[in-house]
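User: Run a structure prediction on this.
Assistant: Running it now.
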Amino acid sequence: MLDAALLGNGSVLVACGQAGVRLLTADGRTKARWDVPADQLVLADHGGTALLVAGYGRVREVSRLDLATRSVRRWTTLRARQIVPSFDGRHLITADDDGISVLDTLAARPTVVWRELGGGERLLGRLARTPAGCTGVVASPLPDGTQVVELWRWDLPGWELRSRLRTDAFRPGHCAALASGGLLAADPEPADGPPERTVLHWTTERPLTRSGAGAVPSIEGVAPHGPIVDGDHWTLAVPGPDGTGVLLHTGAGAGSAPTATVFLPQADTQVPGLRRHGDAVTHWHRSGRVLATTPDGATLLANLRVTVG
């Protein structure tokens, strides 16, 4: 299993690579299945449509799934370095070597309706999106041949650039941007022996207010993959108790500390997934485990194990 999302009606949509796509009940029973390869789901904000993306290197085969009629039709083939995992039902955000492109998915073939970046500007890391905004880390060339790294934040749907915050904190694999602005860096805290900890450092447009003098949030354990982000939700994955399974420490918003912890038993060290859609946050792992909670983590909405066969 390569992607998953809890939908507004309580069903769980999962992408299983070459094994296709399934629609499941919250306890794991199959409601529908489609023999369309997909390793990424791109959900419309309204929840009625999902784009099914199968990646073959930089080439992406994209189909459109109508969740009301349960019909699928092939849309197009794209070359893209990344495809943002949510869209407004029409406009799809992608990124490639030329910058950011916004595509009209209701056109018969890909039509670019907006572009961002140019003149040597490069996107670093992944874009984060909510219906209200989009943020990414951008490297821009300077006249002396060096570059400046900034956190760019746009308002959506009009792509008004609202801020460019300079940062020296970005390091691939250790940092991630949030859609509303803010850069989260996760660094292991040196220790003489166990237990080890991961310290969270935030870069934000406004100074953060700490609960104590010099207080810096941290979690027990080392997060080898760095922050995993969808929109304004983030998670850090560390080994579970006694080294078994994975603990996901999850929070929401720039400057926050973890507010919920999710345990994925029998999960290995592969990167887990996170998705915020509607009133749910879905956690998934390639081992087939899917857990979904309310955004505050207080209520469990789905708990299942997907087997591909």
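DSSP finds no helices and 29 strands in the chain.
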